[in-house]
Amino acid sequence: MRGGAVSESAPIYYEEMSKVAGKENDKQSITLIATDDAYNFGDYITLRSRTGHKPQVLTDRGAIISERMAGMMDAKVGDTITVTDSSGTERKVRVDGITEMHIGHFMFMTSGGYKHVFGEQYQSNAYMVRLKNHETSNVESRSAKLIKLDGAKGIVQNTTSKKQVATIVDLPDQIMEVLILAAELLAVVILYNLTNLSVSERIRELPTIKVLGGLGVLVYRRLKTVDMLGALKSVE
């Protein structure tokens, strides 16, 4: 943590919890992060509501959960939810706030809130780390070095979540590009067929008008005027 590549770090308590919920009623993974420095916690993770971006404040009464987790459990502020810790014990947690997060299920608490819910003294077991160089290649390189340390059990990178979000966001754009291309091809085919049909009708009209005594120049002028009016009408 004192290395030159690390910008700043903060000790936290990290635990993977679970909850049987969702449409399929299957086991969902929940990440618990507890801190004893709620004042500076916002330097690492932004806790805010989706509507109005109102800051969500950590208290010792309960926890702030992610919006996706709240949707999964149909939970609202002030509700009490039940989650299962890593030892298989069910814990009741009051929802003090809901933060804007659409990837994964997260629960954030203070050290006081952790002691109130779990009945145990808070003790950090992990670090939140900010690197000076935020490039993906550097993050992966530093993570590979950190995981080799004897004291490191695992590493969680937010770059993975960013890639998931980017994939989800880019997918609709790719679908729209395909739909636009298909619409353009369809428009070309339709216009081509309509143009051929229009030319065929004009070819049949021209001999008919000549037979009736129309002059060639007047006929072409009339057809040109009709075509222009038809083009303007189609634009409208």
Task: Give your account of this protein's structure.
With 236 residues, the chain is α/β, with parallel strands linked by helices. Helix content is 42%, strand content 24%. It has five helices and seven strands, in the order βββαβββαβααα. The protein has a seven-stranded mixed β-sheet with strand order 4-5-3-6-2-1-7. Helix 4 packs antiparallel against helix 5. It starts with 5 loop residues before the first strand and ends with a helix.
Entry summary:
The chain is built from five helices and seven strands, in the order E-E-E-H-E-E-E-H-E-H-H-H. The chain is α/β, with parallel strands linked by helices.
Jot down its keywords:
7 strands, 7-stranded mixed β-sheet, 236 residues, alpha/beta, 24% strand
Q: What fraction, in percent, of the residue positions are helical?
A: 40-55%
Largest sheet: 7 strands, mixed
Total count of strands: 7
If strands are numbered along the chain, what order do they take across the biggest sheet? 4-5-3-6-2-1-7
Q: Which residue ranges are poorly predicted, with pLDDT under 50 across at least 5 consecutive positions? A: none
Order of helices and strands: EEEHEEEHEHHH
Number of helices: 5
- Mean pLDDT, nearest integer? 81
Class by alpha and beta content: alpha/beta
Q: What is the radius of gyration computed over CA atoms, rounded to a whole number of angstroms?
A: 32 Å
Task: Describe the SSE topology.
Layout: E1 6-21, E2 26-35, E3 63-66, H1 67-73, E4 80-84, E5 90-99, E6 106-110, H2 111-118, E7 126-131, H3 136-146, H4 158-211, H5 216-235
Parallel strand pairs: 2-6, 3-5
Antiparallel strand pairs: 1-2, 1-7, 3-6, 4-5
Helix pairs in contact: 4-5
